[in-house]
Amino acid sequence: MNITILCSSPDHPVTAFLERWASEKEGQHQVHLVRKRSELAGGDILFLVSCSEIIKAEHRALYKHTLVLHASDLPRGRGWSPHIWEVVNGAKCITLSLLEAEDKVDSGRIWLKRAISVDKTDLWYDVNQKLFQAEIDLINEAVENCGQIQPYTQDADITPTYYERRTPADSELNPKISIAEQFDLMRMCDPERYPAWFEHLGQKYKISLEKVDHEEN
Fold first, then answer.
1. CA–CA distance, 79 with 71 (Å, rounded to integer)
2. 107 and 152 both lie in a single domain
3. C-alpha–C-alpha distance, residues 66 and 137, integer Å
4. Distances from the Cα of 122 to the Cαs of 134, 160, 211, 214, in angstroms?
5. 65-104 per-position pLDDT tens digit
6. Between the chain's N and C termini, which has fewer beta carbons within 10 Å?
7. In angstroms, what CA-CA distances link 54 with 39, 58, 71, 102, 110?
8. Residue 215 pLDDT class (50, 70, 90 cuts)
9. CATH number of the CATH domain containing 94
10. What gap in Å lies between CA 112 and CA 95, rounded to an integer?
11. What is the tens place of the pLDDT at every residue in 115-136?
12. How, if at all, do strands 43-48 and 2-6 pair?
């Protein structure tokens, strides 16, 4: 099978998972990992993973199937970085959806869904590990069962909700309230891409959060 994966940024943390998957499939499938829609050459399946470009009908027509990995229980949570917003708002479980790409964002038919539990102590890198492994699992399932999966339309009785694009301002902490009150926000702030920060006495500060083992007495 001729498979293309479009992931816009080589610096995105999912890249290592995609590169490893592509390497593992050598000899079984032709797998192309590309960064821009101008590199799309056609094939059987196009997977859009953390893709920031709009993939129009003319690009989708190059493939038998164009599928998007989106971390929300669609039609709820369309838009940007849904799993981040949901964990920040206290979610203990997130949903990963594999759906068909359409002109209207995140509106296509659903192929597969996967529930992912999130522990209250999970930090951004723990959530990434769980999410990215689930993405690989759904990619595998779609490839292995492409002819058997029956896509279904998103539930019209559920009003879609939308998330805005995340910006650095969304990682701002309030120095006047406790860490516990802001922990869900702090733990989902990637220190490289979206660091947690606060301003105090006219100075801006950045905070990095990571787990440490309990020290032995």
1. 10
2. yes
3. 17
4. 16, 28, 9, 16
5. 999 999 999 999 999 999 999 999 999 999 999 999 999 9
6. C
7. 14, 11, 18, 10, 19
8. low
9. 3.40.50.170
10. 10
11. 999 999 999 999 999 999 999 9
12. parallel
